[in-house]
């Protein structure tokens, strides 16, 4: 069994309505809402808003998640 899979206790979490959410998810949702509102106000285009929001959410989600996953992988690497 891979010790990295399923280990959520080491990732930073945020309390949202009594539920612990991983920080990278909360950050992605907040950035997505802000990006959508700003793009919609500036361009008034649904298509542009969708693309900008998707890129912003993807960048934040993976940008904040990958360092945490890499740190877990290094910590739980089997000794040689």
Report what the structure shows.
It contains two helices and two strands. By secondary structure, the chain is mainly alpha-helical. The relative contact order is 0.16. The mean pLDDT is 82. The protein has helices at 23-43, 46-75; strands spanning 13-16, 19-22. The chain is elongated and about 55 Å long. Strands 1-2 form a two-stranded antiparallel sheet.
What's the SSE blueprint?
Layout: E1 13-16, E2 19-22, H1 23-43, H2 46-75
Antiparallel strand pairs: 1-2
Helix pairs in contact: 1-2
List keywords for this structure.
two-stranded antiparallel ribbon; elongated
Helix content: 55-70%
Major sheet characteristics = 2 strands, antiparallel
pLDDT < 50 runs, ≥5 residues: none
Shape: elongated
Mean pLDDT: 82
SS-based structural class?
Answer: mainly alpha
Total beta strand runs: 2
How much of the sequence lies in strands comes to 5-15%
Oligomer: single chain
Q: H/E series, N to C?
A: EEHH
